[in-house]
Amino acid sequence: MLKRGVIIGSLVAIGGCFQRGTFFYVLSLRNAPKTSTCNLLHSKVSPRRSFLSAQRRYFSSLWNDRIDTSAPAFSDSVVARSRAQQAFSILARQGNAWKRLSPLVDLAIGISNHNESSNTNTMHRKTIVDVGTDHGLLAIGLALTGKFQKVIGVDVSQQALENGALSLLSQIESRRKGLDPQKAALDVPVEFRHGDGLKALEEGEADIVCMAGMGVSTVLQILEQDHEAPTSDLNRRQYTDLILQPTNSKPRNLMVLYKSLQDSGWELRNERIVKLSSRWYVTSHFTRPQSNIPVTSLIKDGTMKIPGSTLDSTLSDSDPMRQDLDEYCRHHTQWIRKDSEYGRMDLLDEVWLERFGDDR
Question: What is the pLDDT of residues 187-200, one digit of tens each?
């Protein structure tokens, strides 16, 4: 049963019910204006009710046809990752979507594995939220790993949610011919909500927060509800892990993010880096602070973990990410030094350059 205050109607775009295995588009009435909710439900989605209803059967057929659900080691990391990758190959509009977002999937699976090793009760699996879910690919991929009790996709844009749902349905429609509609559904507990960031969630409803596809300033705006008490809302809501992939990955931008979180006691646990075309994407995993006392002198005493530091200390020379990291460091070292010629280098630049400014 879903909680009161959450409506499932025409936006049940792909699926039927949680017990049968499904995808939901869910609107939270707590945060959505009533007028806009009604407009979304009735003016744009309702005319497609019969179409959406017919597509639910074909969606289940598609997944069972394309994704191997008979693998006995459902919780195995390799199988879990393969399921997510197949989801991207079926639904992604761009071929590089998996390469860009797979680091978030990998880090999330790692968190789940750690949780499973310390707790064999599957009912204690973590719930993960994808903030700024947009097209929903990451949320769907995470759900299909089978590693999480529940996956929640949240977006502030009603239009983004609707376009994401209809886009997925369009692709499903194009592949439905020849599929047996009687195949059993695949259990995928994921729901999509309209809401403003973490405000769309109840306290204690989720454990892991994922964010990708937005800049550092937007990430911090979502994480910091009160500028005088950074991340206080995160602590109050009892999130245990953050997996973040900002779009602006210049060291000076990431340094602001890293400093803000570490000043609030969050610990950098892991990193990933990938290069697509001429852009680098750095994905970072932070764990919940063990103390409520902020550590504000990290940058002064040299104990602050800076962007790339975890990667640099753990990657072997043969790891494919090593080449991406070294190229990233060389490129941005040149930019920072060029900026310094015009007096545009600040303290955070200096700290990063001191660690990575050598010839690589």
Answer: 457 788 889 999 89
Q: Which residues contact 135 (CB under 8 A, 6 or more apart)?
A: 93, 160, 163, 164, 167, 168
Name residues whose C-beta falls within 8 Å of residue 266's C-beta, 6 or more positions apart in sequence.
Answer: 231, 242, 286, 287, 288, 289
Query: What's the longest Cα–Cα distance across the chain?
Result: 68
Q: Is the dihedral of CA 282, 287, 290, 294 positive or negative?
A: positive
- Torsions phi, psi for 330 (to 5 deg): -60, -45
> Residue 47 and residue 41: Cα distance in Å, rounded?
9
The tokens describing 193, both together, are: 């909500």
Q: Which secondary-structure segment (H or E) carries 211?
A: strand 208-212
Its sign, for the CA torsion 75, 134, 86, 10, is positive
Nearest to 7 by CA among 37, 22, 24, 28: 28
Domain boundaries of the chain, sorted by first residue: 6-212
pLDDT higher than 70, residue 226 = no
> Would you list the DSSP string of 113-152?
HHHHHH---GGGPPEEEEET-TT-HHHHHHHHTT--SEEE
Distance between CA 146 and CA 127 in Å, rounded?
A: 11
* pTM exceeds 0.85 for this model: no
The pLDDT value recorded for residue 171 is 57
